[in-house]
Amino acid sequence: MPIYDYLCSACDHRADILHGINDPGPNFCPSCGAEATMRKQFAAPAVHFKGTGWAKKDRGSASSTKAAARSASSDTGPDAKTTSEAASTPSETAKPSTTD
Q1: CA separation for the pair 18, 36 (Å, rounded)
Q2: Cα pseudo-dihedral 70, 76, 78, 79, rounded to 10
Q3: Judging by beta carbons within 10 Å of its beta carbon (0-12, 13-18, 19+), is residue 5 exposed, middle or buried?
C-alpha cells in the first residue's frame, strides 16, 4: 500500500498516511483536529534504482557477454578437439583400403 503526504490547510501540519489507492484520505487533521482540511500533496517517488542490470542498456551488454562466454565454453568442452589434435589424427577417408 502506498504512503501519501497530506497537508492541513488550517495549521500547515504535514502527515504521511498509509492507505490504499481507492481509499478516501483522512477526514480530520491529527494535529489540530480540524475537519476536511487535509489535502493530498505531490511527493517524490520512493523508488531508488541502484546497481547494474536494471536498465535496458545494461541488460543488452550483459546478455551478449554471457552468450559469448557460453559459446566459448561449449567449444572447449571435454569432447571438443583443438585444431592441433584434429590435424594430427588421420581422417577416415585418407586411410588406404585393403581388399583381398
Answers
A1: 18
A2: 100
A3: middle
Residue labelled with grid coordinates 577417408: 93
Say if residue 7 is exposed, middle or buried (CB neighbours under 10 Å; 0-12, 13-18, 19+). Answer: middle
- Which ranges constitute the DSSP H helices of 1-100? 56-75, 83-88
The whole-model pTM stands at: 0.45
Q: 49: closest CA among 41, 62, 59, 64? A: 59
Q: How confident is the model at residue 62 (pLDDT cuts 50, 70, 90)?
A: low
What residue type is assigned to position 96 of the chain?
A: P
The residue ranges of DSSP E strands in 1-100, in sequence order, are: 3-8, 14-18, 38-40
Residue with the three cell numbers 490547510: 9
